[in-house]
Amino acid sequence: MIHFISDLHLSPKHPQVAAAFLRYIGGPARGIDALYILGDLFDAWPGDDALVDPAARGIAQALAALAGSGTKIYIMQGNRDFMLDRGFAEAAGATLIEEPYALSLGDTRYFLMHGDALCTDDVAYQQFRAMVRNPQWRAAVLAKTLEERLALAAEIRMKSEHAKQDKDIEIMDVNLGAVDAAIRAAGQIDLIHGHTHRPACHTHVVDGKACKRWVLHDWHDKAEWLEWTPEHGLAFRSC
Description:
Layout: E1 2-5, H1 15-26, E2 34-38, H2 54-68, E3 72-76, H3 86-91, E4 95-97, E5 101-105, E6 108-112, H4 123-132, H5 135-142, H6 146-165, H7 176-186, E7 190-193, E8 200-206, E9 209-215, E10 224-229, E11 233-238
Parallel strand pairs: 1-2, 2-3, 3-4, 6-7, 7-9
Antiparallel strand pairs: 1-10, 5-6, 8-9, 10-11
Helix pairs in contact: 1-2
C-alpha cells in the first residue's frame, strides 16, 4: 500500500493540522509500504536548522518513527517549504526527491510533481519560483541567521497573500497546455501532484493517449490522502 499527501502547511497558527498529521502517522499510515509527501509539508521552512524548534523536531521524529517501523518515506520540496533539504530528510528518516519523479506501481507508470511549475499563467509567481530555486540565491539566504530567515519567510508569506487577492483564481490553477507538455515529456504516463488545493482526478488526452491527473487534497482538520493498492489502484481516503 502506498500513500501520497501534500499541502499540509504545518504551522503554529494551525495546531489542528499538526494534530491530524500525528493521528495519521500513528494510525492509517502505520504498516504502509511507502509515503510520498509532495511538497508543502510546512507552511514555511527557513532552513534545516529550524529543527531547533520543538514542533518542527516533533514532526521529524514522528516521521522517523514511521520510517523505523518499515515505511519508506519520500519528500519533495513545495512552493512554501522550498528550503527544506537533506538535513530535515535525514532527521525524518526520509529520502529527498526531485521533480518530476518517476514511479511504477503495478502495471501503471506515474510521475510526481508538487504542481506549482504547471501554473504557468501566473507569470509573477514563476519568476519568484525561478529565483528561490537558484543555488546562488539559496546560498545567500542560508548565510543569514535563522532569525533573519524567519523574518524573510514571514515577509514572503505576507506578500504572497496580498498578491493572491489581486489575482484571478484561474491564474493560480494549472495551465492545461503546461500539463499536456509535462505528460508528453514524461512519456505519456499518469501524473500525481498537489499545490492547487483542487482535489480531483482529470483525464488528459495527449497525442491520442488518455492519461490521468490526480490532484491531492490540502489539509485542514482531518487527514486527506491518495491511496494505492494492488487490488484497487488509486483512491482518495480521509480520516
